[in-house]
Design brief:
The protein has 13 helices and eight strands. The longest helix is centred in the C-terminal third of the chain and has 17 residues. By secondary structure, the protein is of the alpha/beta class. 46% of the residues are buried. Helix 4 runs antiparallel to helix 5. Helix content is 42%, strand content 10%. Strands 3-2-4-1-5-6-7-8 form an eight-stranded mixed beta sheet, with helices on both faces. The structure holds guanosine-5'-triphosphate and magnesium ion (MG). The site of magnesium ion has 6 residues, from helix 7.
Length: 354
């Protein structure tokens, strides 16, 4: 689907389903305990040049150049060819189990002479890959009945949590929703400023208490503020933490517990952010986080330019947790709703090697 690569026009306010019945004013950009921050100082990427496209070129390919060229030359269909493809899939971090399952299925079909040529084999591989992703390509639906709809982002250090929040703020704002952000990363002084810069850029209020504040207390404050302002969506940032750091992992459970005091159903979405270049370690990360705070959705970032994005298939096979969005760059608009076909189209284009 081409939509993956084309910048979608923003929905004008009033066109989103949530906004149709929405009448109350948006929160203004002033918040309690908010300090101004210069987006440039916080190192935010510059806005994209209008009309810039080319996502197809930016997403790393699943098969390396050699294999792609080989397939483009219409080689003999034999076990060697399948072995080459399998190695390429493993190298792209699809995972050993997922890769060999895919290849064994293709081998059976090849032996029963189902494929006339390499093109047909490739088409079958694409279909298998799409089938792996379809069950997890479930977009995040903001339930307008839950107000605010509380999203908390979690994940290890540097995966793109705060950037993803900035992108989501932009997206939801464009959809006409009112929102608020909670600066729940109280570990680094720069973290609060970074979120505030994204907030300012999008005209979205940010609730913060500063460095070393208790993350659960920030979340509690923010939910209280969001409730009293009748905001549609609250997105809480959290500090990056290693899945092996027990105490820090417990803190996440505490944030969720404290939110429940104000809204027993909150958080409505626990969005775990995964760096698409992490490789198979991502599997371990999701497993450990999910033990502490049930993960309801994934965002896979940094898929631009990596040859390692195959981890998406491994995640889909292992957990079946919905993949909500894909991050394909550092700019506010570089977030795509995860679409199985579009993703496979980008990673494994039909016209391999010409
Ligand atoms: N290329 C690329 N870079 C990204 C993407 N998402 C985030 N980044 C970059 O990754 C780096 C880390 O992003 P942050 O959003 O600060 O990550 P974080 O998870 O909040 O990090 P901590 O709060 O330190 O745990 C920044 O330089 C981002 O610009 C993406 O989709 N593509
Ligand atoms: Mg952060």
């Amino acid at each position: 689907m081409v939509s993956w690569f084309r910048r979608k026009p923003s929905n004008p306010p009033g066109q989103s389903p949530a906004q149709a019945t929405e009448a109350e004013p948006r929160p203004d950009a002033q918040t309690p305990a908010t300090v101004g921050a210069d987006p440039h100082e916080a190192g935010l990427p510059a806005p994209a040049a209008p009309g810039k496209t080319g996502w197809l070129q930016r997403i790393g390919k699943l098969l390396n150049t050699d294999v792609a060229e080989l397939l483009g030359r219409n080689p003999i269909l034999d076990d060697d060819l399948l072995d080459e493809i399998e190695t390429a899939l493993i190298t792209a971090d699809v995972g050993v189990t997922a890769s060999s399952e895919l290849i064994e299925a293709l081998r059976k079909r090849m032996k029963s002479r189902e494929f006339a040529d390499a093109r047909a084999l490739l088409k079958a591989l694409r279909a298998e890959l799409v089938a792996l992703l379809v069950p997890v390509a479930r977009p995040l639906a903001i339930d307008a009945g839950r107000k605010p709809f509380v999203i908390i982002t979690v994940g290890v250090n540097g995966v793109g949590k705060t950037t993803t929040i900035g992108k989501l703020a932009r997206r939801y704002k464009d959809e006409g929703r009112s929102l608020m952000l909670a600066a729940g990363d109280t570990f680094r002084a720069a973290a609060v400023a970074q979120l505030q810069a994204w907030g300012e850029r999008n005209g979205v209020a940010v609730v913060a208490q500063g460095q070393n504040a208790d993350a659960a207390s920030v979340a509690f404050d923010a939910l209280q503020a969001a409730k009293s302002r009748n905001v549609d969506v609250l997105i809480a940032d959290t500090a990056g933490r290693l899945h092996t750091q027990g105490g820090l992992m417990d803190e996440l459970a505490k944030v969720a517990r404290v939110l429940k005091k104000l809204d027993p159903d909150a958080p409505h979405e626990v969005l775990m952010v995964i760096d698409g270049t992490t490789g198979q370690n991502a599997i371990n990360q999701v497993r450990k986080f999910n033990e502490k705070i049930p993960v309801t959705g994934l965002v896979v970032t940094k898929l631009d330019g990596t040859a390692k994005g195959g981890v998406v298939f491994a995640l889909a096979r292992e957990f079946g947790i919905p993949i909500r969005y894909a991050g394909i760059g550092e700019r506010p608009e570089d977030l795509r709703v995860f679409d199985a076909e579009a993703f496979v189209d980008a990673m494994l284009p039909e016209t391999l090697g010409g």
